[in-house]
Amino acid sequence: xxxxxxxxxxxxxxxxxxxxxxxxxxxxxxxxxxxxxxxxxxxxxxxxxxxxxxxxxxxxxxxxxxxxxxxxxxxxxxxxxxxxxxxxxxxxxxxxxxxxxxxxxxxxxxxxxxxxxxxxxxxxxxxxxxxxxxxxxxxxxxxxxxxxxxxxxxxxxxxxxxxxxxxxxxxxxxxxxxxxxxxxxxxxxxxxxxxxxxxxxxxxxxxxxxxxxxxxxxxxxxxxxxxxxxxxxxxxxxxxxxxxxxxxxxxxxxxxxxxxxxxxxxxxxxxxxxxxxxxxxxxxxxxxxxxxxxxxxxxxxxxxxxxxxxxxxxxxxxxxxxxxxxxxxxxxxxxxxxxxxxxxxxxxxxxxxxxxxxxxxxxxxxxxxxxxxxxxxxxxxxxxxxxxxxxxxxxxxxxxxxxxxxxxxxxxxxxxxxxxxxxxxxxxxxxxxxxxxxxxxxxxxxxxxxxxxxxxxxxxxxxxxxxxxxxxxxxxxxxxxx
Length: 482
Prior knowledge:
Layout: H1 58-69, E1 73-82, E2 89-99, E3 105-108, H2 110-113, E4 116-122, E5 128-137, E6 142-147, E7 172-177, E8 185-196, E9 207-210, E10 222-225, E11 230-237, E12 245-249, H3 250-263, E13 269-270, E14 273-276, E15 279-280, E16 285-286, E17 293-298, H4 303-306, E18 314-318, E19 321-322, H5 331-339, E20 346-353, E21 356-363, E22 365-366, E23 374-377, E24 382-386, H6 393-398, E25 403-408, H7 413-417, E26 424-428, E27 431-432, H8 436-446, E28 455-462, E29 465-472
Antiparallel strand pairs: 1-2, 1-4, 2-3, 3-6, 4-5, 5-6, 7-8, 7-10, 8-9, 9-12, 10-11, 11-12, 13-22, 14-17, 15-16, 17-18, 18-19, 18-20, 20-21, 23-24, 24-25, 25-26, 26-27, 26-28, 28-29
């Protein structure tokens, strides 16, 4: 999670203390006291309670689980590049992670190490070491790091990934990490919802919702059960949602971890199918079926559209594997199954089309980058970013291939001339702009103009309307003022 001190943009909820319950029990054996007098009543039977029959103090359970994982929790410090303020700059980002192997592999979030040029980890014993990124995925918000053994350590303290699928609502969990830039912390709560569906946040997995405090800086830290297993990676918090945080389930992470190790990224496949559950409570739509999943729509120029798949089709099987989504909570698993299928290979979909069996063959495409590349334009005083179908779908709808203004420097020439973030760049000095390379070339030519001629005519698309702007960059806002 990005700290507010460093111009973070991701919102998280305010930290609130949690009341932990401690249960106290007395132990020993119950015996009859002898007075030396003869009693006519039958003496009570002596009862011996073995240690295995005694209830455990809840504090002991929590402490034992904590000690299994806490030494493996790391505070992550990153120097990252940022283009949001209209210029290329460096910012400090901190987050959390957990070591999962004795050779120093660290799990954390993608957004903790995004655009990082330097990554350092602080261990619980005070050691610090640099780390390199060996695998990331923006869609899952997961990153895998490797601690460099610069201090000669042979092995590292590490925790074990558990199976989050065996947990249920009400189970106690602990959120560990480095909130608010503090080096180490643990909070306790319960699983509020085991399978939380967050539409628009992640298409490939459900979330584990917890009321254990997850604050800015906790991102990438482990969610731990009472047996000391890592059952999730803390990722999201809600600023005004009370004690509401979300973690990526460990069962999902275990599935994609070998791919990150081997390839360094997940090669998601793209079909262009928008899925819909058979029971859609929010839109009050209910389909008369108990198997399959509905096609809500298909993206333009997508493999699904080219294959003739239509809205209203009910997919019964994909590549021979039956699928079923009665509720929306079952949609991410189907999307993940499609996404992990090999791209550029044919798969067969068995479909029910209004009662008629239909078989369709789809050749999945590589999803490719889900984040546009960025470029700094000095003296123009703005940064640009390529339009991406998945990163900026609204801009992609207006201009499938193109570039837009990411950030505007203040004070600066772009802002003074009237350019604003999210303007789609159509032309600069009569040169059509399609890629960042187009801008790079035009920018280089513009910098060769005489100081008195440093003006360029820029055509932009803003909210669907074309506008002409004269970009005056005769003034150098980086020059020292006299």
